[in-house]
Prior knowledge:
By secondary structure, this protein is mainly α. 35% of the residues lie in helices and 3% in strands. It has helices spanning 2-25, 60-77, 84-88, 93-98, 129-138, 166-171, 217-223, 226-229, 234-238, 252-255, 260-266, 306-310, 317-321, 323-326, 332-335, 341-349, 361-365, 394-398, 406-413, 416-420, 433-441, and strands at 239-240, 245-246, 368-371, 378-381. The strands form 2 sheets. It has a two-stranded antiparallel ribbon with strand order 1-2. Strand 3 and strand 4 (378-381) form a beta hairpin. The longest helix has 24 residues, at 2-25.
Amino acid sequence: MNRWLWLLWLLLALGFGGTLAWKMFASENKDLYLIGDTTYGHYQIEMACETCHTSPFGGEEILQDACTSCHAEDLEQAHDSHPKKKFTDPRNASRIEVLDARYCVSCHTEHQHEQTRTMGVTLPDDYCYHCHQEVGEERESHKGLPYDSCASAGCHNFHDNRALYEDFLVDNAGQPWLLDIATLAKPNAAHKQIKPGAQPLTLQDASYSAALDVPEHIPHEWASSSHAQAGVNCSDCHSEGDDNIWIAKPGHLQCANCHENEVKTFTEGKHGMRLSGTVSKPLQPVGPADSHMEFTKSGQQLHQSCNACHQSHAFNRVKAAADACLGCHADEHSLSFYDSPHGKSWQENHQTEQAYKLVSCATCHMPRDARGKGDKQTVRVNHNQNFNLRPNEKMIRSVCMDCHGLGFAIDALADPVLIKNNFNGKPGVHIESIDWALKREK
């Protein structure tokens, strides 16, 4: 009897060990090894473990290198108010004994979903107290304020506080809620890639083999597109290499041949991060069905690539700016867009040549980056839709203040009701940061 029990134990042990080995070395799905649910910022790449865990024996430095390999550029652009060098200063040695802010994981511990808060922070909400307790004791305007409200009341952000600096608050105090409407610059980065001497193409110029079973509507869509107007033919996207091998479904790397910045920023956001070169192994593009957010039923099976929003062959930028977003996103904020002042103006005028001047989903969530002046100005669209979304105060300078005063923008972005109805009305809350900054000036 004992012999049979030993044999059963051996078979079970071999089966269990074999399953672990197969999961580790052969299977694409390694969820067995996840020590906890991944945050909303990283779940897209949780099956590419080596993207963050580049060494099985790595410590905090290895993880820190992984964090900065993806996020360092964002922090630099945000003028990070708490850079690592601030905490390597010997004068702050006592502070890092309490909270070692040299490392991202001190505040953003992964796989701790049950204790992860807004912005992926896994510390208690009053973490500012550890270094700034004197503010609550000595600054008259802050006496009695709870420390768990520093980062949640629309006043302070740990990394990007530029729109809330005191001098900026004072300089922009007293502005009306609506400023002179800015004339948004028209994106032209791709236009500058047009080959010298390129001529607009027509349906008769389409360069594809008659042997291909191409649906009739496709050439017509291309002939009406900006690509055809710029002299970009079918073979320019559908072929690669010296032998011009035909590609049935060009991917984002083909698009990057002319739209390098757009593809780069796309792969830095949640839509395209699975396609980023920093991910340790190829992954299928993410789709709404993979997400925790609310999406339409019709959009569930889509996978995020350039064509998911831009429609292959038609490449309609106007459709990509709002209709494409609402084809998937079904949360209250998104569904309220067309009933908002921004959305109504968009619906009335988006079919005109002036559509780029209107406010669409893309206007706010994909800010334009204009560099140079006059004819030399290049205007790029940042396709990382997370670039200014978290914390939302990052939108104040890059978007809101194109048309709205600072006080209105701060209050609006701190009002959860107004955010849900897509800014259909005026703020129902007031953040006193400008008032306090003016008092300190006196």
